[in-house]
Amino acid sequence: FPSHDMGPNEFRDLEAIADASPLNALRVALARSQTAHLMVDGHNVLHQLKHAWGQLFEGGIPGVNARAHLVQRVVEVCDIYSTLQADVWFDADRMSEVTVTPQVRVHFSGGQGVDRADGRIEGTLRHLYGGPAKPARGSKRLQNVFIVSADRDVRAVARSLGANTMYPTELALLLGC
Fold first, then answer.
1. DSSP helix, strand, coil percent of the chain (3-state; round to 5)
2. Which of 167, 158, 89 is closest to 125 using CA atoms?
């Protein structure tokens, strides 16, 4: 990335890069030291990246080791970028939250059935960023909010609120996988 002492032409170039994809938009925000919020659908990401992290699965599903590996990779990226905040969500029978670092929180959904974390992500996104009035697409409030999931419903809710959506493969590039 270019240095922080960029001229006007370099900023226009960064705008073109940011418009190309959500991953590029996140990279540009981080290069500019802007605050960014990453919300990760943990089990969805692990299933989508099974080709890379499948050796960490237990009985064909992402267990403790796979979850810990994903969280550790997110922590490493947040250690590099002090303006990046991340929330990683996992399906679980009991609801809980763990603050791993000041920048990274891990949430366990609680509840029963499938896609429990999806509902919690959607609810949190609506609570934090939806507010009483739906923000316009590209709203400053959601400009640097990035939801990582391949789940169609999670992505639709995020987009309806004006947040950026990234596929797990895009996150893998950020994590260096």
1. 50, 20, 30
2. 158
What's the rounded Cα separation, in Å, for the pair 47 and 30?
27
State how far the Cα of 29 lies from the Cα of 84, in Å rounded to an integer: 9
User: pLDDT (tens digit, 9 = 90+) per residue, 3-60?
Assistant: 455 555 555 555 555 556 889 899 989 999 999 999 999 999 999 999 888 899 999 8
Q: In this structure, what token pair is assigned to residue 165?
A: 């959506």
H helix or E strand, kind and range, residue 37? strand 36-41
Helices 168-175, 22-31: axis angle to 10 degrees equals 30
Global confidence as pTM: 0.81
73: left (phi over 0), alpha (psi -120 to 50) or beta: alpha
Report CA 147 to chain centroid distance, whole Å. Answer: 4
What letter would DSSP give residue 98?
E
